[in-house]
# Entry
Amino acid sequence: MNSIESFILSTLSATVRAGTPLLFAVLGTIFTERSGVMNLGLEGLMLVGAIGGFVASYQTSSLLAALLLAMLAGAVLGLIHAFFTVTLRVNQIVSGLAITMLGTGISGLWGKDYIGVIARRFEPIEIPFLSDIPYIGQVLFNHDVLVYISFALVPVMWFFIYKTRPGLTLRAVGESPDAADAKGINVFAVRYFYTVLGGSITAIGGAYLSLAYNSMWIENMTAGRGWIAIALVLFATWDPVKALIGAYLFGGITALGLRLQAVGAHISPDFLKMLPYLLTIVVLFFTSTDTLKRKVGAPASSGIPYSREERT
Amino acid sequence: MKMKIEKRLVIPRYSSILVPILSVVVALVLMGIILMVFFYGRLGSLSLAFRETFDAYKEMLTWPFANKYGIFSTLMRMVPLAFVGLGLSFAYRMKIWNIGGEGQLYMGALAATWGALFLFKDVSSPLAMILLISITGAVAGGLWALIPALMKAFAKTDEIVVTLMLNYVAIFWVDYLVYGPWKDPKGYGFPGTAPFPDEAKLPTLFKGEFHVGFFVAIAFAVVLYYIYKKTRWGMNSKIVGDNAQAARYSGISIVRYTIIALVVSGAIAGLGGAIQMMGVQHRLQHGFSPGYGYTAIIVAWLAKLNPIAILLVSFLFGGLLVGNDQLQMFYKLPMALISVFQGLVLFSLLGGEAISRYRVRIVKEEAAHIE
# Structure
């Protein structure tokens, strides 16, 4: 294998690793927004997931416990958001910002004594046979179990949303809560459920950072990934398969930046670090016009609280 | 007798003052509970944790508001918060969610440094220097906000994520400069630029504890108050925010209003960055802002976008930032505490506003079934 080939392969493999936290966040948020709740609190959800997972792994050395505590932490914040947006019907943007601040703060407070310590991490597992496939094996099947879970989650979510009865219910609630209500669907329960579920899936993305990608707890370690994921939800047009493409696109940019730094390219690392944020702006620009949104079928009632008294 | 919860037709005026005050109180109580849990984890005894929390609160609330040096620190922290908060109010009135105050502040500071160290280094009059730097800072903040403004006005790009992404870009840009080309060769490897010349420092009072940027912030608040209450812009921008459809029918150009709102918003934040450089920092440094741009979001929201109230709330939050520093020093508490508090304030405020839309009425049984 020559050096260019190995550079490309290792960059692609790093792409998957860098894309995975985003993928979890985007997938979780697709659930939330499909039900008609807009959640801008991803940054906070990911951070509590990161610290929750890390603390559980440190205390128990059980990775299952880590995953569960991360999901629980995300679920609790999701529940708070659901209470404020679904029950109290407050401004969803402000509630999302508050989730971000609360999550950032709680994770910093919680993680105070976990800076610089080492916890058990998710180790890469080579999948027999599949990892022997030339090129593809090294890029896709030489990762830890969370990456494989994210692989599985994409088709499962796609099938669930588009091909099953509860998926139809979910879409109906996000699209037209009035009609769903008239059909006897409990709009509030559905929104609660998916906001909590979305929060816990998003939090896994954070746990991936602290238990696999960086393998330590750093305050504010998400570094804006939650916000990038919000842009990716638009890019993906609420479709799990496109979410995968978007997340790896960003993973690729991040990985390439890091790789170029490692091989000593003559670009300031600060400019390379800007790339994902700049790309987010570009992506938003190209997915932004009203017409585009209508064409691809955004959940029509996302961001609008539902009230039975105020039905139109 | 029976309790009945019903929707208020008119939300009483006092609730717009009472709810923000109560929400700060509720947030303080909730944070106290969280702190107690934190101290319990550290000390292992509930009564000790209670004592520690009580002492910490005393420190956090007395030093910034009841001590001479503390009050000066509070006032100096208030200035950047007030500038960014005032700037944000200008956009929020139109329901344009500029959350890029932090980046606009950074760009203002960056441009001010550029002015002080390179562009205007031959200017010898302090007054001219300060004015030129202020303008440069405001222009830079405004241009930084022009990016999301144009995107929103012409392509309907959502401004929330764009303004936020630009915060990161601005911070990395400043990092690039202070670690790279602008790094002070005499700075012992410290990531900062050379200090500003004396002509580019704001006049101070009280032995340097206090700079005149404070009065500029007050002047801006008064001017904005006048604009919001008495001018056509003030009225039209409110209409655009409340009902864009109606605004369009009455002949208001949404494109023009959107661009102006965001650019002015960024310019005021950028001016805040320049004033922070000239008044306090005197050199551009890595991470000079402890999240002023984010705290200012809460300030603007809690003040209900009223410029005079923004001054008061930024005084309060300036004090809380100072108090948080004290806690960091004496109780080894992380900076993150301020984020916890801000999240709690926002939630209390949202909850309070939601509740104040309803009232509880006691109805007698007989009356109840007549309804």
Remarks:
- Chain A has 13 helices and two strands.
- The first strand of chain A starts at residue 125 and ends at 126.
- Chain A has one domain: 3-125+133-296.
